[in-house]
Design goal:
The chain is of the alpha+beta class. It contains 3 helices and 16 strands. A 5-stranded antiparallel sheet has the order 4-1-14-15-16. The chain has a 4-stranded mixed sheet with strand order 6-9-8-10, with no helix packed on it. The longest helix has 31 residues.
């Protein structure tokens, strides 16, 4: 113990400690970046229709608020029904590509859904469910409801979104996590997300 304290007090220990801490911080940051990049690189691609909304984030700049048709999950698609007990829940949603190229909900469940050919399973963000009620749809989010754009470029995209001209290409990991891959206006990519 005395040798360790002597080395620490000599200044050399401080340098070693700083290097170890910097290395850990770099490792953590790299892991976060790599997890997002792996979804963008290897995830299943899904095209989603958007619906109107708008704002600005003072720390990150302009962004477009995105609302999807799949954000409103019809109760009749829920296999096994809504759990009776209130609490925090996650909804798994099975999407299938339609003839128009967009993906829509064909099934959902409060339990993980098994994979099926030609479908993609998207996992919602946790939300509070008050149990069964008379509603026809459950509103969920998937973590892809904001898209940041260069300053001053949000308004034209919002107008296009409100006209129904905006679509989002999303990559979905096998676990159901989603990342926005690109933003399309009139079917043409306007912004594409880099891997890193």
């Amino acid at each position: 113990m005395n040798a360790f304290m002597a080395r620490l007090q000599s200044g050399r220990g401080y340098l070693i400690s700083a290097i170890v801490i910097a290395g850990l911080q770099t490792l953590i940051l790299g892991t976060i970046i790599q997890s997002r990049a792996s979804i963008l690189r290897d995830g299943a691609e899904v095209l989603l229709k958007t619906a109107p909304v708008d704002p600005r984030d003072f720390l990150r700049g302009d962004y477009v608020v995105l609302n999807y048709d799949i954000s409103s999950v019809p109760v009749q698609t829920i296999a096994g029904g809504i759990p009776a007990e209130p609490g925090e829940r996650t909804l798994w949603v099975r999407l299938k590509k339609q003839p128009d190229g967009f993906w829509t909900i064909v099934e959902s469940s409060f339990q993980a859904l098994p994979p099926q050919p030609e479908t993609v399973i998207l996992r919602s963000q946790p939300f509070y469910s008050s149990g069964p009620s008379a509603v026809e749809n459950i509103r969920v989010e998937y973590g892809i409801e904001r898209y940041y754009v260069p300053e001053g470029e949000g308004k034209p995209i919002e107008e296009a979104r409100n006209d129904g001209s905006v679509a989002i290409s999303v990559r979905v990991s096998p676990s159901g996590s989603a990342q926005i891959r690109s933003l399309l206006v009139d079917g043409k990519p306007v912004y594409e997300e880099p891997l890193y």
